[in-house]
Amino acid sequence: MPVQPVEVLYTAVATAENGRDGRVASDDGKLDVVVNPPKELGGSGAGTNPEQLFAAGYSACFQGALGVVARQEKADISGSTVTAEVGLGKTPDGGFGIKVAISATIPNVDEARARDLIEKAHQVCPYSNATRGNIEVTLTVV
Question: 136, 89 in Cβ contact below 8 A?
Fold first, then answer.
């Protein structure tokens, strides 16, 4: 798959100290969090972790993409929510990888319409576009 050119409109900058057991902060000071491995991976679980940060970003981005699609389709998505579950595990080659499950609740449309909207949002969302073909992403209407 060829690299898709992008005209950059905004650039976020964050710096990590001590990797998964330290701190990460944005250059503008709006994000400054302690990161620690979760207890499930032998860490203290005292702070957040990269998977939670990725899940937060992906769910917010996907909700935004859903809004773009809904406006184009003239669909009422008020009261909708998007949840991203990010799983971390070992790959067959001995490395580590992630997989994502996106679930959306869209109370004002029927299930078929909701499914259509999230499929279209998946084509628009920058996180979906960045991960497409690289990780498993499942979509579910709740």
Answer: no
Provide the residue type at 23 as one letter. Answer: R
CA of 97: how far to CAs of 38, 83, 89, in Å?
Answer: 16, 20, 6
**Mean predicted confidence (pLDDT) in 66-93:** 97
- Domain of residue 35 covers 1-48
H helix or E strand, kind and range, residue 87 = strand 81-90
Is 12 within 8 Å of 137 (Cβ atoms)? Answer: no
Question: Does 60 lie in the same domain as 41?
Answer: no
Q: Which residues contact 42 (CB under 8 A, 6 or more apart)?
A: none
Taking the whole predicted model, whether its pTM rises above 0.70 is answered as yes
Q: Domain check: are 38 and 89 in the same one?
A: no
Which pLDDT tens digit goes with each residue over 109-125? 999 999 999 999 999 99
Closest to 74 (Cα-Cα) out of 108, 30, 97 = 108
Chain centroid to Cα 40, Å, comes to 21
